[in-house]
Amino acid sequence: MIKKAILAPRNSQIVICDPGHEVEVPRWKRNANHASTDTCILMGCLMDADGPTHFKLGEIDEVDPGRPPAFQGELKTPTRKIALESVDGHTVLDAPVPHERTMIRVWTNHEREPDEVIVGFE
Q1: I want to staple 84 with a disulfide (CB 3.0 to 4.6 A). Which of 15, 39, 93, 112 is the partner?
Q2: Which CATH fold would you assign to the domain 3-121?
Q3: pLDDT (tens digit, 9 = 90+) per residue, 69-112?
Q4: How are strands ordered across the β-sheet holding 34-36?
Q5: Where do the structural domains in the chain lie, given as residue ranges?
Q6: Alpha helices, DSSP H only, in 1-122?
Q7: Mean of the pLDDT values across residues 48-53?
Q8: What is the rounded CA–CA span in Å between residue 71 and residue 34?
Q9: 97 with 120: CB under 8 angstroms?
Q10: Is the pTM of this model over 0.85?
Q11: Distance CA 84, CA 95 (A)
Q12: 4 vs 55, 89, 92, CA distance in Å?
């Protein structure tokens, strides 16, 4: 099932993680569009002053827009849940996942300030 949300997140970032597990927050590098550890992915999005970002979360085969992802990697999900959260820790979207390690792909419609962020998992 595809879940959707529209939000102008603080700091122009969204956090992708297992919300029930301790995360190691990655260090953001200047001019990067994402940063990651094996427990947390930070994705850049549209500056909050410029408007909202549209978020989608679902299984990869449901949400794949047919272009190369901006990010692809594995995320530890020991409680078998994935969430998109604000940098303040508020859940934007969440979904159960089948494994304790989850393949994540993230697609964006702009390299620096996307107003569309699609997160797929398998």
Answers
A1: 93
A2: Substrate Binding Domain Of DNAk; Chain A, domain 1 (2.60.34)
A3: 999 999 999 999 999 999 999 999 999 999 999 999 999 999 88
A4: 34-36, 40-44, 13-17, 81-85, 91-96
A5: 3-121
A6: 60-63
A7: 94
A8: 8
A9: no
A10: yes
A11: 9
A12: 6, 18, 9
State which amino acid sits at residue 4: K
- Token pair of 12, please? 């122009």
Tell me how far apart the alpha carbons of residues 15 and 60 are, in angstroms, rounded to a whole number: 18
Neighbours of 46 (CB within 10 A): 23
- Beta carbons of 69 and 52 less than 8 angstroms apart: no
Position 52, amino acid: P
Q: Which two structure tokens, joined as six digits, stand for 54?
A: 């549209």
Structure tokens of 92? 């934007």
pLDDT tens digits for range 84-93: 999 999 999 9
